[in-house]
Known about the structure:
Elements: E1 5-11, E2 20-27, E3 33-36, H1 50-56, H2 60-66, H3 70-81, E4 85-88, H4 91-105, E5 112-115, H5 125-138, H6 145-161
Parallel strand pairs: 1-4, 4-5
Antiparallel strand pairs: 1-2, 2-3
Helix pairs in contact: 3-4, 5-6
Amino acid sequence: MSEIIFIDLEASGLSQTSWPIEVGWCKLTGSPTSYLIAPDPDWPLEVWDPAAENLHGISQDHLLKDGRPAAEVCRALNKELGGQIVLSDAPDWDAFWLYRLFAAGGEKQRFSLADFAEQFPGLPESDYRKASNLASVKTPHIHRAEADVLHMRAVYQAIKSG
């Protein structure tokens, strides 16, 4: 991995028909980037999960008003992350939602995902929880893509700094 980059996606729910609604990423330094994603015409609106909306606070109306088209988001992701291995704290779900995003956008994904937790082999769970709690003071995990990548970065930095 040449550069440490973190990614997070939020979605319409946690089902096999769910779709991405927000993506965010950040590097070890600098500001994060995030996009709300407009629903693609091929994504079923009826699978919207009100429990997921309560968690992330993003409504369908907000996405329809402020979301960016899938193709635009895909191009931005590839431009910034192309050729990189990007860390996700939920790589199975994030890979699924990225697949849906790139299929809708008609683009090929040019970066890959790695499991955030696997970056710390042998780290005791108690040490991970301690780092996460420490990170939560300044960067809480609130189920919004931008905030959650900042939280992931803070956890990474807390673990690496000992």
